[in-house]
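Appendix B. One record, verbatim.
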Amino acid sequence: MDKIKIRLALAIFLITGFISGLFIGAAAISTLVSYRIDSYHARIRELEISVEDRDAQLEKLKESINKSRFVLKDIEIVLEYEGDEIDRITIEKHIKNKYRNLLGKEVRNIDTDILIEVIDKRIFKLEEREYSLKVERLVLTEVLKLWISVKENS
């Protein structure tokens, strides 16, 4: 009789351990999956915002083209810089961001003197280094093209 009670207690203990392990495992997997889903939702939202920005930019350009006006369609930066390629890309991105709101605007309404003053004789800080920017040349057509010399300040 004692052997039956011991076997029954052992069987109940084994079944209880199996069921509790099943619940704990299901909870852990559910937590991991929900974390991944949340991160995917955040990334999807970032991409949706990016697409909305691009669509708005495209709509502005289409409206300008439909009105047969001469509008700014792109920005090109030519850097005279002999440093690190990653720094070059970062500086170029920073400069393009300064002029991004001009896209889709009519070229004849853009003041070139103001375009030059936005970047000319500016100091750009990147990490612990400082760079002096100087506009050498500017061409304004459907593409705003800027030649900028970059010197690292010691």
